[in-house]
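look at this record:
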Amino acid sequence: MGKDYLDVEKVKNFLEELIVEYPICEYAYGDAKDIPFSDKIFTVCETDCVRYNKSWACPPHAGTIDDNIKRIGKYKQFMVFSTVWEVSDSMNYQACLFMKKEHESLTRDFRKKLLNHFDLEEQSLDEDSNPPIYILSSGCTICDECTCPKEPCRHPKERLMTAESHGILLVQVLEDLGLTSSYDGTTVVYFTMVLFGKEDE
C-alpha cells in the first residue's frame, strides 16, 4: 500500500466501500480547513459535564485549542457518520450509555478495518500525536471506570477521543453538512469523525 493513506481519493473510495458494511444512518464529507473551533467548549465541559478530567478521552486531555487547530490542520478532508438507536427514553442515562457503547464498538471495528486496509497500525493517542488517519467519536467507555487523572490510560490504542475534547464545534459541523443532530424522545444519535489526507512528513 505504501503511502496510499495520503491519497484523499483512495481513502474516500475505501470509505465508500466500508460504510455499507455498517448500520450507518447518514454521512458526509468536508474540508478539514473549514472545521470550526472554540475554546468555550472546554469551559462548558468543565462546568456541565461529569466526565471533565475524569476521562482520558475528554478535556483537558487533548491539548490546547491552538494545539488542536494545528493538529487538525494537518489533514485535508474529513467524513462524519452517524448511527441512530431506539431507546425507551432519550433522557435515560443508562439506556443511552448502552447504545453509546454500541456506537463506540462499531467505530473501533470501522477504524480497525480502515487502518488494516492501508497497512497502518493503531497508535497510542497523546497530546502530540498525529496518526495517519485520525478518528474521533462520541467518547470512550471501554472501561467501567476510567483511571483518569491518577493513572495512565489502560487502553491507549483503543481509546476514542471526542471531537469536543479538541475544541471542535461538532453541532456547527453537522449543520454545515446538513446532517441530523437530534431526533425524538425515544431516539439517540451518535457521531464519528474520520480525518484523512494527512500531510506527508
